[in-house]
Amino acid sequence: QVQLVESGGGSVQAGGSLRLSCAASGRTFAVFTMGWFRQAPGEQREFVAAISRSGDSTEYADAVKGRFTISRDNAKNTVYLQLSELKPEDTAVYYCAGDNKPLSAIVTSTVAFQYDYWGQGTQVTVST
């Protein structure tokens, strides 16, 4: 088992920035591919970004490419999501997720059902 706890959400104006953190505990963090997903009210959960176990491979949704940056610090068991140039449509609950299935060593998944471990979410609200 692994426990994931997100932090760093909040309310910002359009154009602003936030840094989300996701702290992991319970198992060796370095064996997990980590992802960030978000869910707006009335919408399905959608992929935002993912990072490989070593951090040398990343994936981004087209909607956030160039504005968001995912990174990880395996020594601190933490994955980060830097949100910049925020837009009102970025408003959502942001979830971090972990995938430690064998395939995750090769593929950095962008699909929610591949991830077995989820945090409780942190709210990001962007106003005009």
What does this entry look like structurally?
The chain is an all-beta fold and 128 residues long. Strands 2, 4, 5, 6, 9, 10 and 11 form a seven-stranded mixed β-sheet that branches. It has a four-stranded antiparallel β-sheet with strand order 1-3-8-7, with no helix packed on it. Strand 5 and strand 6 form a beta hairpin. The mean pLDDT is 95.
Give short descriptive properties of this protein.
single chain, 128 residues, mainly beta, 7-stranded mixed beta sheet, 4-stranded antiparallel beta sheet, 11 strands, 0% helix, 48% strand
What's the structural blueprint in terms of helices and strands?
Layout: E1 3-7, E2 10-13, E3 18-25, E4 33-39, E5 46-51, E6 58-60, E7 68-73, E8 78-83, E9 92-99, E10 117-118, E11 122-127
Parallel strand pairs: 2-11
Antiparallel strand pairs: 1-3, 3-8, 4-5, 4-9, 5-6, 7-8, 9-10, 9-11
Low-pLDDT stretches? none
Helix segment tally: 0
- Global morphology: globular
Q: Give me the Rg, rounded.
A: 14 Å
What structural category do the secondary elements indicate?
mainly beta
Distance between the termini: 40 Å
Order of helices and strands: EEEEEEEEEEE
pLDDT averaged over residues: 95
- Sheet with the most strands? 7 strands, mixed
* DSSP summary, beta strand count: 11
**Percent range for helical residues?**
under 10%
Approximately how much beta-strand content do the residues carry? over 45%
